[in-house]
Amino acid sequence: MKERPAQVRWERRTQRPLFGLAAAFAVAYAVPIVWPEADRGVERLCTAVEWAVWGAFALDYLVRLLLAEERARFVRTHWLDLCAVVLPLIQPLRLLRLVSTLLLVGQRARVASQIRLTTYVGGAVVGLLMFGSLAVLSVERDSPNGNIKTLGDAVWWSFTTMTTVGYGDHAPTTGLGRMLAVGLMLSGIALLGLVTANIAAWFISRFEMDDVEERRQTAAIAALAEEVRALRAEVAALSDARPVVHSSVEERRR
Amino acid sequence: MKERPAQVRWERRTQRPLFGLAAAFAVAYAVPIVWPEADRGVERLCTAVEWAVWGAFALDYLVRLLLAEERARFVRTHWLDLCAVVLPLIQPLRLLRLVSTLLLVGQRARVASQIRLTTYVGGAVVGLLMFGSLAVLSVERDSPNGNIKTLGDAVWWSFTTMTTVGYGDHAPTTGLGRMLAVGLMLSGIALLGLVTANIAAWFISRFEMDDVEERRQTAAIAALAEEVRALRAEVAALSDARPVVHSSVEERRR
Amino acid sequence: MKERPAQVRWERRTQRPLFGLAAAFAVAYAVPIVWPEADRGVERLCTAVEWAVWGAFALDYLVRLLLAEERARFVRTHWLDLCAVVLPLIQPLRLLRLVSTLLLVGQRARVASQIRLTTYVGGAVVGLLMFGSLAVLSVERDSPNGNIKTLGDAVWWSFTTMTTVGYGDHAPTTGLGRMLAVGLMLSGIALLGLVTANIAAWFISRFEMDDVEERRQTAAIAALAEEVRALRAEVAALSDARPVVHSSVEERRR
Amino acid sequence: MKERPAQVRWERRTQRPLFGLAAAFAVAYAVPIVWPEADRGVERLCTAVEWAVWGAFALDYLVRLLLAEERARFVRTHWLDLCAVVLPLIQPLRLLRLVSTLLLVGQRARVASQIRLTTYVGGAVVGLLMFGSLAVLSVERDSPNGNIKTLGDAVWWSFTTMTTVGYGDHAPTTGLGRMLAVGLMLSGIALLGLVTANIAAWFISRFEMDDVEERRQTAAIAALAEEVRALRAEVAALSDARPVVHSSVEERRR
Questions:
Q1: What is the CATH code of the structural domain delimited by C132-210?
Q2: Are B167 and D168 in contact (CB < 8 Å)?
Q3: Which residues are CB-contacts of D99 (< 8 A; sequence separation ≥ 6)?
Q4: D191 Cβ partners below 8 Å, 6+ apart?
Q5: Which pLDDT score is estimated for A91?
């Protein structure tokens, strides 16, 4: 993904405001779910903020597309972003807008190369837990035989799901809630894999340091270099004995 | 498994039609379970398609056996395929036919070397989830105290099992259903292992790139090469001073 | 664990009969649990077989101790075996005898170096599942509010525990049953770790083959060797031009 | 974390008494929970011991801070310890005191470099299981619809949580209990990762030993060294034929 200067400059300059908007989206998404008895005005404001944030990320996608030198390639490598831009226009469901915005934020965060992998994964896990809890709560609260009715239950359920503990004291009962749950489970497996892989890589990098064979090689190469240096000295002595013009490595480089 | 040209050519040519038949099998297996109030004609058609697909794969096994140069060795290394060909003839149970066909398809997909490991694993996971859900549904639906009665419940249960979350809101109660569940659990553990191993291998391959000892070695070898080149220059100067015929590496190679 | 010939010879010769006895123990342990309405004679026979097998392994331990050259060291490195030999004498409980015999069999199998790691782990997993199911069944069957009453339930529960799925439809309620369950859980975690590690090691060994830096080094060393060979040719030409006695590597070696 | 002698000497000398105090804390924390009908005097004694142990670790932190040469750096790298020292002064809750003392003990144990990683992890797991069980028991016992009422249930629940089995026969119902449970789950995931990583690192270190490419390199370097030695012999022969002063490597080093 070697991308051109104009696009890169845009991405750097818009990074901070976009992440600020992402935080605003989180608040606007949480308020009507956590505080269901709020004014209709508050609810409308939140919906407006959601649309605005999604719009800003959609605009960012279009600007990056215009600034890209190879547009066809940009569309191909960013097809997920394109879906996230188009989908809420076709089906203006709240959950779809959530997924679309999260996708756009996530893809944008991957571009920001300053962000390290650990920060990215940590942010993704916290974000998934938070939005997963809220989305399942909003879906399951209205289900007659649902058992996730408060924010506390929803967060607790998210944790038991993502760590694959799965007590079963709370579990989604609607189709939509279960689709969200599957997303959390798969993220949990990926998280577990990442944690393990990280520890394993750290362990193994320590083992590598002590690689016996490599040390022996380094010693062999050093001994060989010493041998060649001695040989050069002998040859130099040989040629010094007779009036021959010779040049050292340094002299030849000039 | 060094196999001979004739066999390889057959395997390449029949690959696509066989995978088309595998898709047909999936449909034929799903229809009577998802749509239990269907005509007896539909049911009979599905059974016929199932037998036909199994037959095609059994035939493929026999042709490959005939084309193999070392037949005894082929039978030994493909004994699982042989079981899958013979079993449905002894016990014409629907579940056995499913397992046999899945085995034959899976073994055949491993031969197709163009398919990459990730695709193979992904396909296996999706296939196991789909057929696992359908098989458990067909087994548990008729159980008096079963709790997996709809396709939605079966798919949901498959996901909670394969990710080892295991809420316990739905669980098989019959012996056959539990055997299928154990299969899903073991696949889930293998899947988790694969995901972790993949991430770990990727992490470690990045660490490898930064191997400090190796870089030091490369630098040492480069310095040594420079030293030897300088030595050659000196020896050349030495011999140039006197009328001696000498040849460079390139000249000697001619 | 460098052990002396006499001991090794004993271990090799007694290996097969001891594993045969281990199989007899499995049968003798299973029969009274699976078939509780059996004769008192059958039960007494089974108890006798259990004691006999344990006795054979205890005897094997003593013979190996006597044959060991450094006895103090043998006792120190085999203290677990010593416990397993002594414990059933102090507390002749059936469960304790099971654990002791399993320990002795397991330690003995580790000595048999012909058995590969995968076989050993596979055997341990199957053994733990089988004996775990039987032991929990025998403990929980008599518990008033227990829910593991049949062999099928016990095996099913073992699988859901060892794969860490844990539906919770069946779970031990007595202290002893829960201690057995904890053992199964920990084995399950170890099993998961082994599967993952095995796959990861295989993946990484494939990555290693393609190590870019190492290939570059090999090429650099080869180029250097070619350079040195050319240099030798030049020096040889230099000395051939004048009547100087020189010797090749081969000649010097004589 | 290169730390200065005075601090290191203090850390070595105080290590044993501090770990003795940690054991005393464990007893003082456990007694009022396991034995709730105890005298008020016993309870007061336990509270006093808890405060005393926390105080000793707080004092140890301050002494190490004073002995540190770069104090600002010490505070920055030990900010978690600082929180653990300050928090119980602000909010003298029992649970907070537990978490603070555990943190201080854990951080102190990391300094003790004699303790190996495996011992550290093992100790952490056992400690988390023990204190997790006790803390959840003390929190859930008073909850009206709680289901963790005895020490046995609490320990059993801890194991099912930490191994991510999660039967759901016992699960915390209060907010505080659930926060503790989340801590146990995350520790469980870390534990699983550590076990897997350990096994994987061991497997891979065995693979490394057999690295084919490296062996080939070592052989190539050895052959090259032999070649250079032969060359030196020839050059020496060349110069011996004429009265030229030359010096060996050893002579030049003097």
A1: 1.10.287.70
A2: yes
A3: D84
A4: C189, D121, D125, D162
A5: 85
Q: How far is CA A200 from the centre of its chain?
A: 20
Least confidently predicted of B167-171, C190-194, D24-28: C190-194
A250 pLDDT tier (thresholds 50, 70, 90): very low
pLDDT for the residue numbered B247: 41
pLDDT greater than 60 at residue A65: yes
By mean pLDDT, which of A216-220, A248-252, B109-113, C234-238 is the weakest?
Answer: A248-252
pLDDT recorded at residue D49: 94
With tokens 């310890």, the residue in question is: D81
Q: Which two tokens stand for residue C65?
A: 């101790």
Quote the tokens at residue A75: 């569309």
Chain D residue with Cα closest to A216 = D218
Query: Cβ contact (<8 Å) for B235 and C234?
Result: yes
Confidence of residue A155 (pLDDT cuts 50, 70, 90): very high
Picking from A102, A135, A124, A133, the residue whose alpha carbon sits closest to that of residue A190 is A124
Token pair for A87: 């989908």
Please return the burial class of D123, using the count of CB atoms within 10 Å of its CB with bins 0-12, 13-18 and 19+.
middle
C209: tokens are 């083959």
Count of CA atoms in the C-beta half-sphere (13 A) of B135:
26
Q: Which residues of D touch B166 (CB under 8 A)?
A: 165-166
The answer to whether the CB of A199 falls within 8 A of the CB of C196 is: no
3-state helix, strand, coil in chain A (%, to 5): 80, 0, 20
Residues of B in contact with A246 (CB under 8 A): 233-234, 237-238
- DSSP 8-state class, residue A115: S
CA angle (D23 as vertex; D17, D24 as ends), nearest 5: 90
Measured between CB atoms, does C238 come within 8 Å of chain D?
yes
Query: Which parts of chain C have pLDDT scores under 50?
Result: 1, 3, 243-254
The pLDDT of residue A213: 64
> Looking at this predicted complex, what is its ipTM?
0.76
Range 13-42 of D in CB contact (< 8 A) with A: none
DSSP-derived secondary structure letter, A147? -
Cβ pair D200:A203 closer than 8 A: yes
Q: Is D118 on the interface with C (CB under 8 A)?
A: no
Enter the CATH code of domain D123-208: 1.10.287.70
What is chain C's percent helix, strand, coil content, to nearest 5?
80, 0, 20
CB contact under 8 A, C232 and D227: yes
What one-character-per-residue DSSP string does B216-234 give?
Answer: HHHHHHHHHHHHHHHHHHH
Instruction: Using pLDDT thresholds of 50, 70 and 90, give the confidence band for residue B251.
Output: very low
Residues A184/A156, Cβ–Cβ less than 8 Å: no
Subunits that touch chain A (at least 3 Cβ pairs < 8 angstroms)?
B, C, D
- Tell if the CB–CB gap between C216 and B218 is shorter than 8 Å: yes
Q: Got the DSSP string for B11-79?
A: HHHHHHHHHHHHHHHHHHHHHHHH-TT--HHHHHHHHHHHHHHHHHHHHHHHHHHHH-SSHHHHHHHTH
State the alpha helices, DSSP H only, in B141-169: 151-162
List, as ranges, residues 178-217 from A with C-beta within 8 Å of B. Answer: 178, 181-182, 185-186, 188-190, 192-194, 196-198, 200-201, 204-205, 208-209, 211, 214-215, 217
Whether C158 has its CB under 8 Å from any CB of chain D: the answer is no
C91 touches chain D (CB under 8 A): no
Q: How far is CA D134 from the centre of its chain?
A: 22
Q: Answer yes or no: do A217 and D218 touch at CB < 8 A.
A: yes
CATH code at B116-210: 1.10.287.70
The first and second tokens of residue B245, run together, are 């015929």
Q: Name the residue among B167, B168, B200 with its Cβ closest to that of D200.
A: B200
Q: Within an 8 Å CB–CB cutoff, is residue D126 touching chain B?
A: no
pLDDT of A230 reads: 79
